[in-house]
# Entry
Amino acid sequence: MKNRSGLLLTIIIFLIISGFYSFRKPEDTTRAAINEDQRLALFVPWFLSKYWEMHPVEAVYVGYHNNDSIPFVPDNDFFESNAFTLKQLTDTLKVFREDRLSASGKTDLWMMRDRINSDLFYLNEFRDYEWNPAWYNIGGEFAEIINGSYAPLDTRLRSASSRLRSAPAYYEAAINNLKTPTIEHTDLAILQNEGAISIFSKTFPDSINVSGLSKEEISVLNRRLDAAKLAIEQYVAKLKAMRTTMTPENSRSFRIGRDLYYKKFGHDICSGYDAGEIYTIAQKRKTEVQAEMAKLSKTLWPKYFGSAPIPQDDNKTISQVIDHISLNHTTPDSFQLSIEHQIPELIAFINKKELLWIDPAKPLVIRKTPEYMEGSGAGASISSPGPYDKNGNTYYNVSPLTGYTPEMAESYLREYNRYMLQILSIHEAIPGHYTQLVYANRSPSLIKSLFGNGAMIEGWAVYSERMMLEEGYGNNEPEMWLMYYKWHLRSVCNTILDYEVHVNSWDQEKAIKFLTSEAYQQQAEAEGKWRRVKLSQVQLCSYFTGFTEIYNLREDYKKSKGSAYSLKQFNEQFLSYGSTPVRYIRELMLQQK
# Structure
């Protein structure tokens, strides 16, 4: 019945959007473009409503709360329904004529098509819901609902209560779906789901205590909370039992192999390069960066080592200078405070240099990384409200050093020394992720804002680092430039590492040696990156791929504008297209003379 009603709705939508042809004269090409864009604009809300039915958790994160109260169970019926919906959407998109769309409309059409094809790949080929136990975790979505500001607390609690009904069935489906879990993702799922329990044992009760819910509503909600906690605990217990018998020999490898890697790269990165091409470019860039680091290290050598002879091996020179500079770092207790102090300094520099407009009305909240997000290997991250919830807070998540031994903490703080910590905040906050995502939420195209391309998002953050130093941030201190190159080398080596591990099967020893000796990373950072490359695929390529495409676009844009070129104009125009793949932004920007 559900599929038949969906088919009927598709026919209705088809008739509505097809009807616009009658208003267009064939010879009027300008009007044709406008009409085709109007037809597409009418289609987009329906497309998104169907999309969020398929992605109920992602919907919460982007601020689409229409379905918050609907229980979600990732069982066979859910996946079969998604397959049918994707077929509907594929067929309906064929109605639109690319040659009659404006450049912006054409890009929206491409991005919708890309997203459908990506979903089909993940559903039918990648199938991580069968081997990644961390795919299942209800903590994040409920934390978003309870901590949100899009509706009164009582409304959010009632939605959460209704959604909670499915928690036991959700985790039952998780167990049924898992067929060949990896050891690494099983360990992650245990860690993150244990962390999620606090949301239901503390966050919810704290909210209930200040709510206006009736006694009956509270009673029902508490029963559902108890059932949810029990379901999570049983899931964790099941995973722990499975884990006792799992070995590398009898478990699926975390490596996805060449075929899936190239396909995943194509869908996730959506670049003008394929995985092998960007790997080759990264290798060349690594050599270039190391040469610049050698020059800077030799310049700085007398400052830190006096008349001591400079080593013949450039790698030793670079490592020794970096090790000395890295001693200038904060303490574990003041790590987050140091980041908080940097934010106003970055804003002041950007305003003084007029690099781009920073919206003072959008709050940035620096906080300890929530427990349900721990374990992924990222020391800092941004959690941004989506375009449906533009007034929500953007969180700068900083992982504390709790649980670190003194030796581990010292290694971590040397990696994120005084200079590196500034570059980290440029990347994660201003003018990096935080700024880009604020601009994305202002884009008039929901498609461009919602379907964020990871390579564009990460690429902008990496480009921001370079752009800030080019404009004089850090007073052109050689130490800042050396640490910038070390940081930049991280994104370059991320690409090489990811490819080598998943395609060429590098082991831990080879990976750690590469990161410490050729990327000059501290042991703790290298070990963290090894954990991360085991838990993700392709994402580590997004930084360098996006940066390469953005930087090349800027240089081509500069040539096309000549004396009329403005960095501020480039930055703001680039960001105005939302989180669109760079190859599509290139077409939009370079067509404008």
The two ends are 52 Å apart (CA to CA). Confidence is low (pLDDT under 50) at residues 1-5, 20-27. Residues 346 and 430 are 6 Å apart (CA to CA). Strands lie at 364-368, 380-383, 394-398.
